[in-house]
Amino acid sequence: MKGYIFDLDGVLVDTAKYHYIAWKTIAKEFNFELTPQHNEQLKGIGREVSLHQILQWAGKTLSETDFTDTALRKNKLYLEQISSIDSSELLPGVLNFLQLLKAHHKKIALGSASRNARLVLERTGILPLFDAIVDGTMVSKAKPDPEVFLKAAEGLGLPPADCCVFEDAPAGVQAAKSAGMKVIGVGNPEVLKAADTVIPNFLNMKI
Fold first, then answer.
1. Catalytic residue list
2. Taking residues 57-64, what's their average pLDDT?
3. Do residues 20 and 82 make contact, with C-beta atoms less than 8 angstroms apart?
4. Cβ(28)–Cβ(54) under 8 Å?
5. CA-wise closest residue to 1 among 107, 121, 137
6. What is the CATH topology of the domain spanning 14-80?
7. Which residues are noted in the entry as Mg(2+)-binding (predicted)?
8. Which one of 5, 87, 141, 167 is separated from 150 by 20 to 30 angstroms, measured CA to CA?
9. How far apart are the first and last CA of the chain?
10. 62 with 70: CB under 8 angstroms?
11. Can you give the pTM of this predicted structure?
12. Rounded CA gap, 169 and 9, in Å?
């Protein structure tokens, strides 16, 4: 493989928990208790899609204006929590693996639904290691649509078949497969059955 494309939350950094806390706060406004099981279904998808899903679970509807305001409030809650993060949020083995890829002259991209991805990469100190960044501000279709990964491959100047994606969410795995890329799941093999292979973390990873 010539190019390696990474999702952000739950793959590179341990910031998925902050999304959960923010969404849990929003869900309470609708008298709905957002469980970890619910949250698993929100991983890898965009803010608006996630809010639509929570409203559906809660049996609530919002006007267009209130919907927009609620989505923005969720983002504000998330940003407040990540304002002081640092490299300690990187998941085990991530920094060493990224450095290994660079040492072997491999191209590295981010393919994330997060609209705050660049900020997170900057705060955790790994931004300089990336050759291309595609985030939620640059795509119009959420995973499982392959748009984010196809744009990441384009940003690297590589065909999809030369790229390997690392994902922790079923929607992301599906998106990578639809893009014609190899996909390595990071996390639970039972959840990520569609991945080509699954790893628990990046410790002792080889190219």
1. 7, 9
2. 97
3. no
4. no
5. 107
6. DNA polymerase; domain 1 (1.10.150)
7. 7, 9, 167-168
8. 87
9. 9
10. yes
11. 0.85
12. 10
Q: Is 167 annotated as a binding residue?
A: yes
The number of C-alpha atoms within 13 Å of 155 and in the hemisphere containing its C-beta is: 20
pLDDT confidence of residue 85? 92
Residue 47 in marked binding region: yes
Residue 44 has pLDDT above 80, yes or no: no
Smallest Cα–Cα separation from 188: which of 85, 68, 37?
37
Distance between CA atoms of residues 111 and 179, nearest Å = 12
Which part of the chain is CATH 3.40.50.1000?
A: 1-12+85-197
CATH code, 1-12+85-197? 3.40.50.1000
Q: Give the residue among 171, 67, 188 at the shortest CA–CA distance from 113.
A: 171
The DSSP element (H or E) to which 109 belongs, if any, is: strand 107-111
Q: How far apart are CA 138 and CA 161, in angstroms?
A: 22
Q: Is the dihedral of CA 57, 60, 62, 68 positive or negative?
A: negative
DSSP line for 114-139: -TTHHHHHHHTT-GGG-SEEE-TTS-
Q: How many residues does the chain have?
A: 207
What is the spatial distance between Cα 40 and Cα 38, in angstroms, rounded to a whole number? 5
Residues of the chain with CATH 1.10.150.240: 14-80
23 is in an annotated binding site: yes
